[in-house]
Amino acid sequence: MNKFGPLKIVYSDNFLLHDTGGGDHPESAARLDAIWATLRKGPLADNIQVLEPRKVDRDLLLSVHSEDYIFRFEEACLSGMGMLGHPDNRISYDSYEVALLSAGASQSGIDFLENIEASDRVFCCVRPPGHHSEESLALGFCFLNNVAIAARYWQRAYKRKRVFVLDFDAHHGNGIQEIFDEDPDVFYASIHEHPTFSFPGTGYEEDTGTGAGEGATMNIALPPGATDTEVIKAMEERVAGAIEDFQPDCIIAAAGFDAHEYDDMSGLAYSTRVYGHIGTHLAAWADFHCQGRLLSILEGGYNLDALGPSVEIYLGGLCLKVQ
Ligand SMILES: [Zn+2]
């Protein structure tokens, strides 16, 4: 055995069937191929076991998205419309079914953590991503909010009431914020490029939740060009304190890798290495506060050379055995 512990990856080749129309669209099946190409030949290869995703339960899906929106999404795919609402949101005939599987992957991962081994690390290697999709809106390549669905599942199926979400994608997860804005039991922390400069234009620091949810949202907006120093500082000085205060029952990472310096989808400039630090911090927090209950779900990351190594080093950080 090596210095890493067991890693479960929730994955299906069916995720490749969501066809965004060819080489010009950044959210492509090649992203997942790039991740696997790196993982299969790297130091984690012997530690990986693949878990089969299942389609999201209908009632769980409807706890996050409106029925009207779900029908529109399904109909758009089956009728060959090619996009949902905006050209960014390209769809194909299979996209609806693939999105149901992407959204349900967390159910397989959470079932494993709860019923088999909470101390193993679980990564949902899925597409389409989810954090921009709102209750009734597709946005930024996202259709169903995978992270929000995971949070609701953990609450409903296993009574893990207090869920902490850390979103380290370069972009603000407007969908997660919208869905839990008034919910005091789901804390949403996001570290992203400042909304003045970046899609989708939300995630200002003064947005801290509304009503009963006031104080359960933390937006950390970094200036363009921000590097490892700023993201590590944000993790250690702000996110750590928020977790400590919130005392979660479980943690979900919205794991996006498009803040990498080689990824031109954002102006942030993280190194590959920093994702390892993010992983070790998350693992330590999960072990300390919630008996290891931590689920990571892939969001963005579009530079095909940077994505595989970034994911690998993140997972290495998660799985690193504490001496
Ligand atoms: Zn992103």
Write up what this structure looks like.
- With 323 residues, this protein is of the alpha/beta class.
- The protein has a single domain, classed as 3-Layer(aba) Sandwich (Arginase, Chain A), CATH 3.40.800.
- It has 9 helices and 10 strands.
- Strand 3 (83-84) and strand 4 form a beta hairpin.
- The structure holds zinc ion.
- Zinc ion is lined by residues 169-171, 256, 258, 299-300.
- Zinc ion binds at residues 169-171, 256, 258, 299-300.
Q: What is the topology, as strand order, of the major beta sheet?
A: 2-1-5-10-9-6-7-8
Report the total helices: 9
Q: In total, how many domains does the architecture comprise?
A: 1
Question: What is the makeup of the main sheet?
Answer: 8 strands, parallel
**Beta fraction of the residues?**
15-25%
Q: Can you tell me the CATH superfamily?
A: Histone deacetylase domain
CATH domain class name: Alpha Beta
Q: Could you tell me the mean pLDDT? A: 97
Shape: globular
Radius of gyration computed on alpha carbons: 18 Å
Summarize the SSE layout with pairings.
Elements (H helix, E strand, L loop, with lengths): L6 E4 L19 H11 L7 E4 L6 H4 L5 H12 L4 E2 L1 E5 L4 H21 L5 E4 L21 H13 L4 E5 L6 H7 L5 E8 L23 E6 L5 H19 L3 E6 L18 H17 L3 E5 L5 H16 L4
Parallel strand pairs: 1-2, 1-5, 5-10, 6-7, 6-9, 7-8, 9-10
Antiparallel strand pairs: 3-4
Helix pairs in contact: 1-9, 4-5, 7-8, 8-9
The chain binds zinc ion.
